[in-house]
From TrEMBL:
Keywords: Lyase, Metal-binding. Belongs to the class II aldolase/RraA-like family. Catalyzes the aldol cleavage of 4-hydroxy-4-methyl-2-oxoglutarate (HMG) into 2 molecules of pyruvate. Also contains a secondary oxaloacetate (OAA) decarboxylase activity due to the common pyruvate enolate transition state formed following C-C bond cleavage in the retro-aldol and decarboxylation reactions. This is 4-hydroxy-4-methyl-2-oxoglutarate aldolase. Signal peptide: none annotated. The gene is rraA. It catalyses: oxaloacetate + H(+) = pyruvate + CO2; 4-hydroxy-4-methyl-2-oxoglutarate = 2 pyruvate. Its cofactor is a divalent metal cation.
Length: 161
C-alpha cells in the first residue's frame, strides 16, 4: 500500500509523521498494528518487547529524539526478525547500521551512533507516544514506505481501481 495513495484516498483518516527518518533494512514498505515503548537512551524495554511474538506488529519507540546513544543494533534487529515483527520506528538512533541494513528487517530511525544504550529498564510499554506531529497508540495502524510514515486509527482499505 503506497502512502501517497492512502493520502489521496483517506486524507482525513491518516496523520503524517513529519520527521526526517532514515531507512535501514531490506524491507522498505511495511504496515501493521502498533505496539509502543517509551524510553530515553535505554533499550531494556525495547529488547524485552521484541523478544515476544510480534505477529506482524510494528514497534514504535519514543526515544525522545536522542541520537547520542543507539538503542538498537544488529543483535536486537535479529531478535525482531526472528519474532516476526513487521518493523520498528525509532524516535532515536541505531548502531551496526551496515549490518542492520543488510538484514530482512524494516527500520526507521533518526540517526546512528556507535555508542551503546543504557540498561536500566526505565520507561513505559503500551502507552500512546507522540512525535513528529502524530500520536502512535497501541492497536492503531501504521503505514510506511519510501515517502513517509502515516498513522490511522484502524486498518485502511484502498478503493478498487
Ligand atoms: O545491545 C545493544 O545495546 C544494542 C546492540 O548493540 C545490538 O542490538 O546489537
Amino acid at each position: 500500500m503506497k502512502t501517497a495513495d492512502l493520502v489521496d484516498s483517506h486524507d482525513a483518516e491518516v496523520a503524517f509523521c513529519h520527521l526526517p527518518f532514515l531507512s535501514f533494512g531490506q524491507i522498505s514498505s511495511f504496515n501493521g498494528p502498533i505496539q509502543t515503548v517509551k524510553s530515553f537512551e535505554d533499550n531494556v524495554l525495547l529488547k524485552a518487547e521484541l523478544s515476544k511474538p510480534g505477529n506482524g506488529r510494528i514497534l514504535v519507540v519514543d526515544g525522545g529524539g536522542s541520537t547520542r546513544l543507539a538503542i538498537l543494533g544488529d543483535i536486537i534487529a535479529g531478535i525482531m526478525h526472528d519474532n516476526h515483527w513487521a518493523g520498528i520506528i525509532i524516535n532515536g538512533a541505531i548502531r551496526d547500521s551496515e549490518e542492520v541494513n543488510a538484514m530482512e528487517v524494516a527500520v526507521r530511525c533518526l540517526g546512528t551512533s556507535p555508542k551503546k544504550s543504557a540498561k536500566t529498564g526505565d520507561g513505559q510499554v503500551g502507552i500512546p507516544v507522540s512525535f513528529g506531529g502524530v500520536t502512535f497508540a497501541p492497536g492503531h495502524w501504521v503505514y510506511v514506505d519510501a515517502d513517509g510514515v502515516l498513522v490511522a486509527r484502524k486498518q485502511l482499505v484502498l478503493p478498487e481501481e
